[in-house]
Amino acid sequence: MNKPALQQTPDGFYLNRTPWFAFLLLCSIFALWAAAASMNDVLIAHFKKAFMLSDFQTAFVQSAFYLGYFFVAIPAALVVRRFSYKTTILIGLMLYLFGCALFFPAASTAKYGMFLMALFVIAAGLSFLETACNTYSTLMGPRETGTRRLNISQTFHPFGAMTGVYVGSFVMFKDTDATSEQLAQMSASEAAAQQLQMIQSTLLPYKWMIAVLILMFILITITRFPACKGNSTVSEPRTSIGQSLGRVRRNPRFCFGVLAQFLYVGAQVGVWSFTIRLAMQMGGMNERSASWFLLTTFAAYFIGKMIANLLMRKMHPAKVLAVYGVLCIVLLAYTILVPNITAVYAAVGVSVFLGPCWPTIYGLTIDGLGEDTGVGGSLLVMSIVGGGVMPIFQGLLSDANGGNMQIAYSVPLLCFVVIVMYAVHCMRQPQPVLGGSATAVAQ
């Protein structure tokens, strides 16, 4: 039986069915940016010892990374608006590749600031990718399944994250690495040699990533993608970015969604960034052993996503978000209050309930924006800067309490209180639905 011709709604944003090869290729990009972000969690523990940093200073890894999202999201939206989602993705892949290449001069100079610059460039590329892919995923099929489709795309995220942690931790960390205490007892020359060796060990994962990015760039280039940018024959004249910004700014649900996404990303990054440090502190283990907890975290994240995808077949996405948010609060409270190794298990368990949060908040927030969808999506990507802000507060809180990692988890707990409030708001005030039948579209 032949598939029906690919069609779009009169406004030109959604399709009557999903083009599966293009969609799966798009989904694989979610794994690529997850690998980059998860390797940051390994780098935090690695750089802390290699550069002898405080918890506050290690948080700059995430700050440099997520500032890239903040500054580049609007330019990425302009590229989507002027050209296409595909062009935006290709630019993102090129910047990602260039950022990985910058790790090599950073390692040769052994300067922490150079590594932060490389991470900023990687994040700039990821900002292009996320601005395009998150919104594009919701549009590449029927409107009524847009949020579910984004959740499916995000299911690829934990595979990339687990790969990043596994490769990063088992290449960078060695059981023979000197501890911070041992480094302090060495002579200056011996300690410098050990630290330089640790810094050089960061390069191999990024060599492999460069090869993968080149392959992905080729595949995206030769694959045809639907436009999903609106039908100029039936839509009103295109408005400016300023007009779009003005409209979404006056949309209370959208503004609340941006705040919720800012806090969610901050909470997620905060939970993951300090998992290795929490396990080392509560379990008395080295970095390599503690990294198993971070790997388990991403496995839990995947399981939570799969369960959420099933629940959303029967429940409204906002209701799933609310229930998962409450369970995150309970587990984070346990992590803070219980002074033994089970606190680490609770922190890992939080990731089961992180799974649907990002795509669900994203889908609920941009739903119904119409021509403003691209600008709205870019503002949501800008809100990812929360991942660079909240870990700083966690680091400061930990340093102020003698390096106590447990108390630092108070920050993500407070974030989830607001996220639950947003979910309840969405359940009470559903977004208006855009109507329209389908019209044929040539590919």
Structure report:
It is a single chain. By secondary structure, this protein is mostly helical. The chain has a single domain, classed as Growth Hormone, Chain: A (Up-down Bundle), CATH 1.20.1250. The protein contains 22 helices and two strands. Strands 1-2 form a two-stranded antiparallel ribbon.
Describe what is shown at a glance.
It is found in: Cell inner membrane. The chain is 74% helix and 1% strand.
Per-chain topology:
Layout: E1 7-8, H1 20-50, H2 55-58, H3 60-82, H4 85-101, H5 103-109, H6 112-139, H7 146-154, H8 157-172, H9 180-185, H10 188-200, H11 203-222, H12 241-249, H13 252-273, H14 275-283, H15 287-311, H16 317-337, H17 342-350, H18 357-366, H19 373-382, H20 386-400, H21 405-408, H22 410-428, E2 439-440
Antiparallel strand pairs: 1-2
Membrane topology: Multi-pass membrane protein
Subcellular location: Cell inner membrane
Keywords: Cell membrane, Membrane, Transmembrane, Transmembrane helix
SS strand fraction: under 5%
Query: What is the alpha-carbon Rg in Å?
Result: 22 Å
Structural class estimated from helices and strands: mainly alpha
| CATH evolutionary superfamily | MFS general substrate transporter like domains
Distance between the termini: 20 Å
Number of H- or I-type helical stretches: 22
Unreliable segments of 5+ consecutive residues: 433-443
Q: What sequence of helices (H) and strands (E) makes up the elements?
A: EHHHHHHHHHHHHHHHHHHHHHHE
> Taking all residues together, what is the mean pLDDT?
84
User: Number of domains in the coordinates?
Assistant: 1
Subcellular location: Cell inner membrane
GO molecular function: fucose:proton symporter activity
Keywords: Cell membrane, Membrane, Transmembrane, Transmembrane helix
Pfam families: MFS_1 (PF07690)
